[in-house]
Amino acid sequence: MTASHCRARRQRSLFFCMLNCVGIIASFANTTNYVDNANTGYRDGPPYNSWPHAATNIQDALNKSANGDLVLVTNGVYNFGGLTNWPAGCTLTNRVVISNAVTVQAVSTNPAVTIIQGAADPASTSGPAAVRCVYMANNSVLIGFTLTNGYTRETTGGNWGLGATNGGGVYASSSSSVLSNCVIVACKASYQGGGGYNGTYYNCMIDNNTSGLGGGGIYNNSLSVGSRIRNNFAGGNGGGVYGGILSNCLISGNTASNTLSTNGGGGESCTLAGCTVSNNYCSNSGGGTDTSSATDSLFINNRCGNAGSATISSTGSTRCRFINNYGGSFVTDKSVINCLFTGNDTTAIRDAAGSCMVNCTIVSNTLGIGGAIFASVSNCIIYGNISYDVKDLSVESNCYYSCIGSNSAGTNHVANRGNVYNASPQFVDTSAGNYHLSGNSPCIDTGTNINWTSSDVDLDGQPRLRYGRVDMGCYELLHKITIFTIQGRH
Prior knowledge:
Number of strands: 52
Distance between the termini: 37 Å
Shape: elongated
Strand order of the largest sheet: 1-2-5-8-11-15-19-23-27-31-35-38-41-44-48
Low-confidence stretches: 14-19, 21-26
Number of helices: 2
Strand content: 25-35%
Mean pLDDT: 86
Structural class: mainly beta
Radius of gyration: 26 Å
Largest sheet: 15 strands, parallel
Helix content: under 10%
């Protein structure tokens, strides 16, 4: 089992452990209040301590709940009621306000059947009659709901108070506000966080939300685990998500675009681990992500209008795959280690002072005129790329112990630096996209060991240093051995 698989299993175990803990806390809640919007025959008011005595809207039950209590909600569409002044001074109405450390949980595990519905202002969409879906205080938990049609106030025309223009679906006070197994869909914020503002998200779907500025899906989330952030739109940076840590998430089909400079079609200022970033677009820079770091992640089919089809101003990429991205250039100001670049249509791989590429495979990319790598390169394979004016991209910074294709020698190449020139790296199957090294590759055991090589792993999560000297490229060759069984006498 690879190291990346082990990490994924640990992250899933952590996620399910968290859910189990939520369930345990719920089962030992101080008080359980019940909600059933079809319980119209019950008119006596609180306590709402049984299904026959259930409240007909969520807010009534919350108003009678204290820290540590559970509000249990059965199937239905909850689209009436609401409170203002949450957060304090905010004039926007919230359909549901969880004002203390209460868990609000749907009975069904299918979010599609338990819905909290906000509302647009019928006259002006984001006017005084707009309704956000949910406000969450510190240490509150929301489990198993769909939040839809939530809106905020407009950004112009008055001072509507803190948070009135952020978080169309949910406004969370902090990272201790937790959403689990929720769907946030078709919500809109006039400023930041079309789907959600702040909070922590486990196994949620954030889909088709819009923000006027940053974070079409989520803005400033602290942590998202196992979530799907899809088809959101931001008029500023971060079409899918702005800020936060994302683990094992899908970030797909998001857009950041307006008439000004917008960056990060998928995400802006994020830290990604084990994520897939696909089919995102931005009108300026960073089709996939902007100013973000990534580990064990896939960037595929992202586009941009200017620079950074996959990512731009990266703060570091480790064990990532960049495949079939279009437009601009990959830009980094940190290290890029054990990564694969293939099938991209871009201009160059650029750097800021001090950046480097180590043990990367850069193959079968199409680059613009003068396509080049402007980063310090070591232990890399650069082969079979097409530039409009040369046969391969030029390495214009220091290059050490790398396999370099034809016409790739830039101004800083020195023959005795351990480079292999104009020799096929002998991949297993280029046509099938298998860029592992075959047994006769000149790249085997010809790299240079770095002080952290002994503890490093390759793109497959396999140990880097197996046979004394590291290979070139993103994959370390694992030599096959034959085991002979000698049958003894009976």
